[in-house]
Amino acid sequence: MLSKTYGSAIYGIDALIITIEVNVGQGSKFFLVGLPDNAVKESHERILAALSNVGKKFPKRRVVINMAPADIKKEGSAYDLPIALGLMAASSQLSSAHLHEYVVMGELSLDGTIKPIKGALPIALVAKQQGFKGVIVPVENAPEAAIVDEVEVYGAHHLLEVCDFLDDRKPLQKFTGNREAMFLENLNHFDFDFAEVKGQENIKRALEIAAAGGHNVILIGPPGSGKTMLAKRIPSILPPMSLEEAIETTKIHSVSGILKSSSSLIITRPFRSPHHTISDAGLVGGGPYPQPGEISLAHNGVLFLDELPEFKRTVLEVMRQPMEDRVVTISRARISVEYPAGFMLVAAMNPCPCGYYNHPTRTCVCSPGAVKRYLNRISGPLFDRIDLHVEVVPVPFKDLAETSPGESSAVIRKRVMNARKVQEERFKNSKKVHSNAQMTRNDLNHFCKLDKESRQLLKTAMERLNLSARAYDRIIKVSRTIADLENSQDIRPYHLAEAIQYRSLDRENWGD
Asked: Fewest Cβ atoms closer than 10 Å to its Cβ: which of 7, 343, 395, 403?
């Protein structure tokens, strides 16, 4: 007898429908075909024990299970549940009347308990797209899948609960989620606020500019000057995510298996801070079975690289192309997947090995040339992709002793959102450019025209400060953002002047 159940395979951050065909006929052998990996092949033993322990029988006949399409790799243990249901239906232990209506996924314990899986959100999305009535997933994953509207989501604890549901004996727990209400409820909740930061007004200003234009920024200063503290508060001043951005971000975290059970939808922008010992694959993604890396987990949010020179140079270099393309492609012999990587890079570093170069009160003990060598651990092409270089100095005692709170993140965020609205209108006809940091050379020529006085100022700065040629475009992009914060249609000389001061590491004599 032949039966069909439907599961799903994760491909990148999207899902595909997998048809699981089970045929029970004459003979005594067991065959599982359709490019399964070892975890799928091992399902035979798990299903055999689970069926036995819940009072069901594994067919003692010739069993052929085909997972179609057969040219797509099937990975993981989440196919246990649909295979088990197919076996019971093919051996007349379960009604097959409703099997075609649902996409079913779940890992089975030996006692029939259903364990959580990865990727419930993209699975529910593809079920909706393919016209299925609903999905049946482990109860822990049901709130996540319920984000998708117009598809029924059922959560199950045990194999027998699913059997009773499909046989119309007992209903399963149905989950519904009002994603719009959930989205709005937690939209403005943050753990950190700029009101807690004492002093550092010039650094706050630089980070406001970076957030307003989507610019990459590097903070350089001695230990204890507040670089990490400031960086952690950047998500609180970034514009709120749209619902589409929230769903896309949640999909990435879902397929990575790191989505918290208490959070079915990621509302706030991600803040990822990997350790400097991270590998190439850990940062950009990859592995034997490709998984998203830190740059994809930071999509629509912030990637914070603390102690930037301590990262391996090869790790930093593989990040250059995704920073430009906002997507990373992982290619293997049999598969090639794309993960989004639209992140804002925030880096922090000490100015020298001892950390006290240019310190107002402490003396640097590094040897001559050590500062330059320390800086040269980071390649020029990577610096070329960082728009703002911000020097952070220690906070003086009078600022630390100040009891009144500083300007809150909510106030700064309003100014950032107003600037982003200007950019949305400016780039409404462009599919690839959404903020000033992403402007191309043609965009610069069209939207960033300089008057005679501004051109002369920029020329003088390039010559007197020994700025590199690569600083030219960055200065204009940042000055465009500064003008947007003032709602100024034109770039004024003082906008350029402020942007020029954020290119300190491009000066040829820096660190000498």
From this structure: 403
Which residues, at least 6 apart from 173, have a Cβ–Cβ distance to it below 8 Å?
Answer: 139, 142, 154, 155, 156
Eight-class DSSP state of 196: G
Dist CA 346 CA 274 (whole Å): 12
The structure tokens listed for 412 are: 């700064």
> Which of these, 436, 237, 252, lies nearest to 327 by C-alpha position?
252
| d(C-alpha 194, C-alpha 216), whole Å | 19
Q: Which 3 state secondary structure label does DSSP give 174? A: strand
Among 25, 79, 87, 1, which residue's Cα sits nearest to residue 52?
87
Q: Which amino acid is present at 190?
A: F
Can you name the residues that pair with 318 across neighbouring β-strands? none
Q: How far is CA 243 from CA 43, 165, 247, 251, in A?
A: 37, 33, 6, 12
Which residue reads 């794309």 in tokens? 338
DSSP-derived secondary structure letter, 329: E
Helices (H), 257-408: 280-284, 294-297, 313-317, 320-325, 370-375, 380-383, 397-400
In which order are the strands placed within the sheet that holds 302-305? 271-272, 302-305, 344-349, 217-220, 388-391
CA dihedral 271→214→511→460, nearest 10 degrees, is -170
Query: Closest Cα to residue 271, out of 211, 200, 326?
Result: 211
- In tens, the pLDDT along 292-348 reads 999 999 999 999 999 999 999 999 999 988 988 899 998 877 778 899 999 999 999
Contacts of residues 129-134 at CB distance under 8 Å and 24 or more positions apart, as own/partner, are 130/17, 132/6, 132/101, 132/102, 132/103, 133/101, 133/102, 134/101, 134/102, 134/103
Q: Which two tokens stand for residue 254?
A: 């879902």
Q: What is the pTM of this model?
A: 0.89
According to DSSP, the residues that pair with 503 across neighbouring strands are 389
For 403-437, the pLDDT digits (tens) are 677 789 999 999 999 999 999 999 988 888 889 99
For the four alpha carbons of 265, 268, 269 and 272, in that order, the dihedral sign comes to negative
What are the structural domains of the chain? Answer: 2-177 (3.30.230.10), 194-506 (3.40.50.300)
Instruction: Name the token pair of 48.
Output: 């055999």
Question: What one-character DSSP code corresponds to residue 18?
Answer: E
Contact predicate 384/324, CB 8 Å? no
Give the separation between CA 507 and CA 496, rounded to whole angstroms: 16
